[in-house]
Write a structure and sequence with these properties.
Elements (H helix, E strand, L loop, with lengths): L13 E2 L7 H9 L3 E2 L8 H10 L7 H20 L3 E6 L6 H8 L5 E6 L2 H14 L4 E2 L2 E2 L16 E6 L9 H15 L4 E7 L4 H8 L5 H16 L9 E8 L4 E8 L3 E5 L2 E5 L4 E8 L3 H10 L2 E8 L5 E8 L1
Helix pairs in contact: 2-8, 3-4
Bound molecules: N,N,N-trimethyl-histidine.
The site of N,N,N-trimethyl-histidine has 11 residues, from strand 13.
Length: about 325
Amino acid sequence: MAIPAPRHGVPRIIARPDVRPMREEVLRGLHSEPKTLPPKLFYDETGAALFERICELPEYYLTRAELEILRARSGEIAKLAGPRVALLEYGSGAGVKIRLLLDALERPAAYVPVDISREQLGRVARELAAEYPEVAIRPLNADYTLQLAVPPLPEGSRRVAFFPGSTIGNFHPMEAAIFLGRVRRAVGKGGALVLGVDRRKRAATLNAAYDDASGVTARFNLNILARLNRDLHAHFDLHTFEHRAFFNSRASRVEMHLVSRIEQIVKVAGEPIHFERGESIWTESSYKYDRARLEELIETAGFRTRKLWTNRKRQFWVAYLEAV
Ligand code: AVJ
């Protein structure tokens, strides 16, 4: 059987220049006290593949919990969103969740996946263009933590942003509000946001989710150093660093660190970086929200909660938010 040519053609990736040079950002982070690296650096090819494996881990409940909610509620979401929606996805990843929405929505007009991982973005865009020939696919290779320039979308389509996976948890709550405020402006009046957020829960559950028994999360964390070795001519010896992850209850966040097992000096992009024995690089925060804090965040960002759903085990939230 002949496969019909995509009505909108093969998607061309629009690349923002901001995805390339990270040298300054990396050096700034490694010169600060405590040392930090931005979590977006996790997602090179290897990191994106390791994250896919994390999503399958028995301890990492987040993806399954969110999929359970999306499967149960995609019809309701479609009803709230209405016909001819232009979907903007912040961090499109492997493109599993978006199919649930595209299948449920009434004649979706456009899909704009935004992702920092160019390879994965191109693959997902090509697949979706073939599967959904009626939808205009407009992949955007960009760092969405910066201001987003949204490509022109079909006339008269309502903009609905999709930010799943609790990636919002990577932002400090204040930055989360600022970021969601930008999303609010990107969708405009009459627009909406479907947001996935991990709930605050007992420390043991969270600690296990971010420090799994099979060590996949440790490899995911350490891969950031391998990436710097490759892309920034850094000289990290991965064996001299170890993965550490724990729930910081006072701040309501899981912290991931890479701890130096020895005192050492590592050259990064030509600059020597000194590590004490036991000193860490803070690579990620994953903030966990109780209901009050989530509602506060939503309101500060200029959204109103239309629906707030959870899964049977009450681990995760999916919110349907309307631009105020
Ligand atoms: C993709 C940012 C939502 O914070 O849970 C998984 C990344 N880090 N295991 C998260 C991650 C460690 C994940 N997010």
